[in-house]
Amino acid sequence: MKARLVAVARALAFVLLALALCGVIFEFAGYSAPLMFRSVAEGAFLSPDAWQHSLRWAMPLCITAAGVVVSFRCGYFNVGAQGQFYLGAIGTTFIVDRLNGAPSTIVVP
For the whole model, what pTM was predicted? Predict the structure, then answer.
């Protein structure tokens, strides 16, 4: 339990360090770091339909990451994550095409 808590704390510390570094870089470049962080938060989370748009753009990355995780867990090193994504999309299209009478909760048009 303690090792897991340390791992989470370490990850959060690195995220905060990265955000602070981004803020410093923006300030040195002559931009307002608080304005930049507020704009990112509004565009990604706070404005209407922001969650929907964020998830829409994040899903290909999540699907690709899942494919890479599966190949790594199987013991295969694969550098073609983009190819995995495309083959998964082609395979999914083939399967959805074969589900002609399926309910709309399964097949999203």
Answer: 0.54
The DSSP symbol for 52 reads: H
Distance CA 21, CA 11 (A): 15
Q: Position 7: which residue type?
A: A
- The one-letter code for the residue type at 105 is T
Query: pLDDT of 5-25, one tens digit each?
Result: 999 999 999 999 999 999 999
Q: Is 23 helix (H, G, I), strand (E, B) or coil?
A: helix
> Can you read off the two tokens belonging to residue 62?
């999540």
b (16+ CB within 10 A) / e for 16-37: eeeeeeebeebeeeeeebeebe
DSSP label of 107: S
